[in-house]
């Protein structure tokens, strides 16, 4: 195995492509996407894909995956409790971010390297050339974890034989400071290095009013550092070696999660009394060795990655007096008051270590038959530790937390829930995909992949005692489940080009997301109820049928792409509640259908002025019976039966029966995170003005309403629509390496709701998270 090596996707020829050289501009300048693992023109790929260039990212102030909301059809990036990003494409993504073993439905890659832990998607983009989004299952070359699609972040590569440097400093409101510097250093004609660093800070977009010791405890702040080092070596015409590392560190107060019952009408003011925190550290080491064999290119790919994250947040989102008055709510109606004064997730710690190895052989692109064959091995270990406290007095737990290696807790009398979990995943896959040009206009593509996954793990958990905060805790049964799955996936597509600029395609693709382990499975273990959370959950299967057309008209002035799709979605993984208190876990909804239309149209009005638009229309619903248990309904039923939390464990069978009776059929419910309408329109000017070049962009983005969870609770789950307008101007004097930019994102300061959700743990309160407010930034940069 090649130490510290991984994928930087390469062109299958001896003339290695400059992947970073992807610029926005006239449509004659082809955008090449590398996420197919065979460098392909965006307009020639028989799939739905969008490439967002570095220029467009800068112009829309997009610094991480969340900023892609509105820029890509059918893409939704929502936030969960604790602020983790949940990426969905066409309604398929991750509905189980709290599960240690869960895989995303949209796979995330950096230079083709699969990023194991979805928390790593919280990290900022680092020295990016473009971001590629492939919509729909990628059942052959990417396989597991890409049932919804794939996001591939393509880095800028070092320049051979040429010294270069670029940098920028930006200042903005909320005391924003952004500084970045990159440098290309050649060593002779065959070896080059690139180093890049970024420092970004800003004050909180929101603040909490009741945290002890703070007049305003800032939330939605940023304080991050990232850097990248990459080496490129081409000692001969047929050998290329790339090695790289990317590091990211962030330490903030965490997201603003506003309780929907918060008395403050200001969306940026949160009446919480516990100091949140979010720490994310990621380390990625990767590279590739690629050898051109004339007829094909052989690549050996390896990566090593580590992640550490710590989060804490106010589990009720209110201060002690308010929470004691609204402890249990059903819809907008209180059931019981006056017992709990606070609920705090004091620590949610995650650690991940992963290795990947891939070997593939890709044809050189000549002749009527082009193909790629490869094999992948993955290994990953995850550890997670959770501690939650709840109390009826005015003392908020801030003593040192217990070590994750021990259950010794100095605050056991306040303990509501604690969990210590560990899981290991091993997976391997083999794949083949080929395209045969039957004629110069008609081609057939077929691919197949075999996936094997193994999981093993242990889970121990503790719940609060029957007499709150005075007796010992209830220790739930330790579980050590295991799981092994095998699945075939693949693709079949037909493509017809009636001219070099116009093509139609039709495809069938099967996507697969592995099953996994549940840390909690108490009612299934104790009672044998079939509706209980089981020790394991099943893989997802998506059968996708898609037709599309890609076109250029009027001497390439108009680029028009249309696609329509229909999905049969089996065993959707989602977070379900258990009859046992704190026994929630991942379950499978047996069947759903999703269908929709997508449009991307760009029109070059003049040589300097162009219009860019996108639109998606989506629908989807569950179409088989499944009786799921909403945590909100479960808590209400348990209380109505006379078994509130502090009496649960002394009557847990009867209390569990009451909770079990609150299940409801989700057949006919809407698939979550599936806005009916979503779109954007941008007018871009890029041309000479006076003694220099002016780039100006105004963009409108709209994201429609959707339900956040499968339960479709009108009060808790309805995430409303919002729209934003962004402005950007850049001026670069002719012949000068210096440029200046000014931008305003969210021009009209829209308090758009990113997510509206119910906390599945503890308080079962409802929360809203908001998009960033209006932000004005002025920057000065240079490039030579």
Give a description of the structure.
This protein has 784 residues and is mainly β. It has one domain: Beta Barrel (Maltoporin, Chain A). Helices cover 6% and strands 54% of the residues. It has 7 helices and 46 strands. The chain has a 22-stranded antiparallel barrel. A hairpin with an 8-residue loop joins strand 13 and strand 14 (217-219). Helix 4 (631-640) crosses helix 6. It is globular and about 75 Å long. 53% of the residues are buried.
Q: Please name the fourth-level CATH homologous superfamily.
A: TonB-dependent receptor, beta-barrel domain
Mean pLDDT: 85
- Taken as a percent bin, the fraction of beta residues is over 45%
Gross CATH architecture: Beta Barrel
* Derived structural class: mainly beta
Biggest beta sheet attributes: 22 strands, antiparallel, barrel
Number of E-state strands: 46
Task: Indicate the percent of residues in helices.
Answer: under 10%
Distance between the termini: 38 Å
Low-confidence stretches: 1-28, 326-339, 394-405, 465-472
Estimate nothing, just give the exact number of structural domains.
Answer: 1
CATH topology: Maltoporin, Chain A
> In one word, what is the shape?
globular
Any key phrases for this structure?
single chain; 784 residues; mainly beta; Maltoporin, Chain A; 22-stranded antiparallel barrel; 5-stranded mixed beta sheet; 46 strands; 54% strand; globular
Spell out the blueprint of helices and strands.
Elements: E1 32-33, E2 40-41, E3 48-53, H1 54-59, E4 75-79, E5 85-89, E6 106-110, E7 113-114, E8 128-135, E9 149-155, E10 164-172, E11 176-187, E12 191-202, E13 206-208, E14 217-219, E15 222-236, E16 239-252, E17 258-259, E18 269-270, E19 277-292, E20 296-314, H2 320-325, E21 328-330, E22 333-336, E23 342-363, E24 369-391, E25 415-437, E26 442-463, E27 474-475, E28 482-499, E29 502-513, E30 516-517, H3 522-527, E31 536-537, E32 540-553, E33 558-576, E34 585-604, E35 609-622, E36 627-628, H4 631-640, H5 645-648, H6 652-660, E37 664-665, E38 677-689, E39 692-703, E40 706-707, H7 714-717, E41 718-719, E42 722-733, E43 738-745, E44 753-758, E45 766-770, E46 775-783
Parallel strand pairs: 6-9, 13-18
Antiparallel strand pairs: 1-2, 3-8, 4-5, 6-7, 8-9, 10-11, 10-46, 11-12, 12-15, 13-14, 15-16, 16-19, 17-45, 19-20, 20-23, 21-22, 23-24, 24-25, 25-26, 26-27, 26-28, 28-29, 29-32, 30-31, 32-33, 33-34, 34-35, 35-38, 36-37, 38-39, 39-42, 40-41, 42-43, 43-46, 44-45
Helix pairs in contact: 4-6
